[in-house]
Amino acid sequence: MIVEMQAGARQDQVDAVVARARSLSCDVQLNVGTNKVVVAILGPHTGQINTDLFAVLPAVASVTRIMRPFKLASREFRQDATTVRIGDLVIGGKAVVIMAGPCSIESHEQLLATAKHVRACGATILRGGAFKPRTSPFSFQGLGVDGIEVASQVREELGIPIVSEITEPHHLEDVADRVDLLQIGARNMQNYALLRAVGESKRPCILKRGLASTVTEWLQAADYILSAGNPNVILCERGIRTYETSTRFTLDISSVAVVKRDTHLPVIVDPSHAAGHFQLVPTLARAAVAAGADGLLIEVHPDPINALSDGLQSLTFSDFASLMQELKAIAGAIGREI
Amino acid sequence: MIVEMQAGARQDQVDAVVARARSLSCDVQLNVGTNKVVVAILGPHTGQINTDLFAVLPAVASVTRIMRPFKLASREFRQDATTVRIGDLVIGGKAVVIMAGPCSIESHEQLLATAKHVRACGATILRGGAFKPRTSPFSFQGLGVDGIEVASQVREELGIPIVSEITEPHHLEDVADRVDLLQIGARNMQNYALLRAVGESKRPCILKRGLASTVTEWLQAADYILSAGNPNVILCERGIRTYETSTRFTLDISSVAVVKRDTHLPVIVDPSHAAGHFQLVPTLARAAVAAGADGLLIEVHPDPINALSDGLQSLTFSDFASLMQELKAIAGAIGREI
Amino acid sequence: MIVEMQAGARQDQVDAVVARARSLSCDVQLNVGTNKVVVAILGPHTGQINTDLFAVLPAVASVTRIMRPFKLASREFRQDATTVRIGDLVIGGKAVVIMAGPCSIESHEQLLATAKHVRACGATILRGGAFKPRTSPFSFQGLGVDGIEVASQVREELGIPIVSEITEPHHLEDVADRVDLLQIGARNMQNYALLRAVGESKRPCILKRGLASTVTEWLQAADYILSAGNPNVILCERGIRTYETSTRFTLDISSVAVVKRDTHLPVIVDPSHAAGHFQLVPTLARAAVAAGADGLLIEVHPDPINALSDGLQSLTFSDFASLMQELKAIAGAIGREI
Amino acid sequence: MIVEMQAGARQDQVDAVVARARSLSCDVQLNVGTNKVVVAILGPHTGQINTDLFAVLPAVASVTRIMRPFKLASREFRQDATTVRIGDLVIGGKAVVIMAGPCSIESHEQLLATAKHVRACGATILRGGAFKPRTSPFSFQGLGVDGIEVASQVREELGIPIVSEITEPHHLEDVADRVDLLQIGARNMQNYALLRAVGESKRPCILKRGLASTVTEWLQAADYILSAGNPNVILCERGIRTYETSTRFTLDISSVAVVKRDTHLPVIVDPSHAAGHFQLVPTLARAAVAAGADGLLIEVHPDPINALSDGLQSLTFSDFASLMQELKAIAGAIGREI
Question: Which CATH class is domain A84-333?
């Protein structure tokens, strides 16, 4: 951390900065320039020290962090790439893992038909939502535990792993043993009680990026799960909020590269929520595979026109089949496989 | 809701739009232009109908909502301004209510001293946090229930009402009877389980705007609380995330006017979290009072340099005293009082 | 355009809306609901009518545009895809056209060496800047006319077409005959004098998206050039400003799909300015080709460490060679070629 | 500037950083920690050195600027507040200067009537646009030189100073002697040819903040004008682009405080363009005065319903008169005057 003093700062004000640094077990180096004093605060834990602790001291002009504030998720903490395993499946390996299915689980028939189709096309994990966080209290809120029960039946019938979202810690009781991969949604990325509960469960989980979170905050949220003892964290980019309105969110495709550089965790992309419209989903899916995503989370519905939620961004069976052909070709072109 | 068909849409495609509208109990008027057909969908509940239900139909070019998607919070639902009462205090009346105190409750001594000072300066509600949602798992997380216990003692000693944040539904057990005003923080604005629990509690509450939420989403979140039977909702603008980094968040001062126009709920402003730095807090506080805010939520600490959280944005006792003089003058100039 | 009247609007207020619509040569259809009146304003030119003309009338609650405000750039105006030709090269056809070279032209030697290398790797247009718009007046501002002279020599020696930016209308005198493709930079997307001048020149041009422009505003800027009689417009996505700081700008990869859907113009992507760092450029370039971009604009420098501008985002010769191999494979996978 | 080396950086890589710093006439101090080396680069000109010059060197992990990149506009360069004088008027002094008038000059009658009214209410500068930058080529583009001629007549008749926008350097010929205060609009904040021309003219000018510019970029743009020898620069906050759509732009009220802290230049606020709707203008105007703005730029029109541009955000004569009463009271409450 670098503390720049104001021009004309007194010696006792510099001393106060040094004293605070030492009280936090940090080393200090002073740079006395002609105009100003700059204090370098060094040590392995400076990334976790709040810059405000120095910024609040008298005659401090600015404080700049040079170590990133996330720790367990960082490449510096762990150099080898993490892979998450679900049975035989490996997320973060050579294969690009396709997770597909309806936004909401509506019935056994709907989920089973979708599962058979997406598996036949090459998807290896079935998605389906039971607990739906909705912007309006007057919207369909999902089937809840009944939806999880449906998912569990289809999982047993087809032997396909399931990913589903939970929104409250106590959902774990109903979900943990009937679902293979837990999803923490964008709105809950900073729901710390939920992060801790999923951390303690040790279950494989997807952590979606908050819709206005920086990459740094996203990785700090991952630190909550990792620090509770759960190494099985998969990051998911799903679009961020910007001023542009032609898509529901702006897919931050660069974040795939940033996350690959700065962390050891696998990262997948959700083109459906970013696009908000089925016509735009294939473009984003193709871009995500080319960018190096370790997987995709795609909404597919047997009858989008009559879906109870997110029909507009759901692919039909035939559109999904076509897209999978394209994705396989792109994966092959960059030395991966679907 | 207005559905614009694509140029060349077939009659059966227009009929499908009409049929869906009727199935949702709406009236329909067709506008057949030379180039395209436009379908107006009318009825008192169209604000709560998801536009996607029409956008997903074949040959639909666009769907535009003309009624706002929030309902119970709207001026159309209730024309008279809502006031929230806490004992003798009225929020949403002529007085601009100042709520001040430390970010985190650290000790009985700290809270009591602050309470005495801010009350002497004209604040009428004491703020103090016990459950702190923090971006990093390695930061101070608040005193929890012990902090609430401290707040409860100070409340009894001084007879000053207390506002404090809760972050999980089960906190209500510990907090509901020991605090006068519940705060739902920005990170939890779309934590629907929490919104419902606070709604069912019927307790006066502050709903902070999510840090990347639109005004519309904020009012939909208010609808969650209102629809659970709790009319005592106070909105709080606290800055939104933008590209600008000279302040922690960008205070959306216009939202005070927008909210006053579009809803019947009182609205207050938190200049401390928006600014992120004590030097900028007075400017934002003055602007908020002049803009017509019904109250302010200000962080004050006896010793900001040694505060356990948010010291940088906390005012000292003397800075707070000066600010209150300025705010009283501005309130007077616009026909209000502090 | 749809005008929603306030509940309780009087007949004369509705009449004023109708009268204004008729004065603008539009058709009108009234929808009289139980609560409110909605006026649909129809006609082929409603996209170019400012919504404020209605919003300003008494008792108008809202005005919603259903036709897009851009016209000549729209798919509705021209259904077939536009291609731009530069000699034998076609932009907007099957080939993905790679334009590569240094940010700034620094010397004949530098530009010639770069041109030979990028051409050997498969690039077909040489980029090089002479007039550099820089954020600070104290930064290197480019070689100006001397730089254009260097470009012109290299163009003659190698027979490779050149793209270069102009920032003022009078630059056309020096540039028009010595450069094959004019570039209008992001900061000048709404410099209307420049747009008109380039429009009147009829020369092929690249219109970069403004760093905080919506897709709609970008296409309205294209309308300025098109309406001056120049059909040779190539759009270029180069990243937009958001709150995220891990990259210089956030590449809006979705805009490629949106632009392909809504306009007939070719669209290319500049991964260098979006990324701001050479390590991230290849990821964005791969994503752009997979997304369907018609070309790329990439910064390459023989010695990025000593470049006079944008060294950090410039690829070395060897990194560019590797990237081109990857891009050729991806282009092949989606049925295109480089 | 602080250069952090990657863990494990070699000595020759550190040496390269030191050598580059020395080549730029900077002092260097090395901080050799247990994990990494940090190089502090010191000297009075480091604010104007591009960080990329170091970031591009091998084994550099990050580069952090601690001096701001703007120079002539900074408080460090000049400690005393700058005031801009127009005849007897002082901008940046005790008085809050109100500049009011129509968006576009439409006729002599319109401008004269408005001038008389706003002056009677307390405004001391008349605004009126002749060269209008419009998003669409199909919109009204202003009266051009004829509009300036009208402004010049009204100025002579009433003796009121005029502010008007110019969009191209050659406009100066027609405008410089007929207008008292030049305005550089938000879209042209980084039109460097225009900035230089206004700088060389030495005329008092308003520099509006770009609609997606940071405060830092705004002050760098001011440096362009100042470095051309023109000290008479007035900054103008007019709202920035964010994701929120309930107002046309989001007024960044905090920027008034930031600019007051970081520069010596006067700052005014344009509530009309930020709000985009006349109903919201008074709230923003009140907030701006309370925040400490040195002036306001407000659109007023004798007949907003029939204005040729921006009617929706223009105040009527009677609304403006009421607002001025409120503003005078607020100015008085904070020790200023209107």
Answer: alpha beta
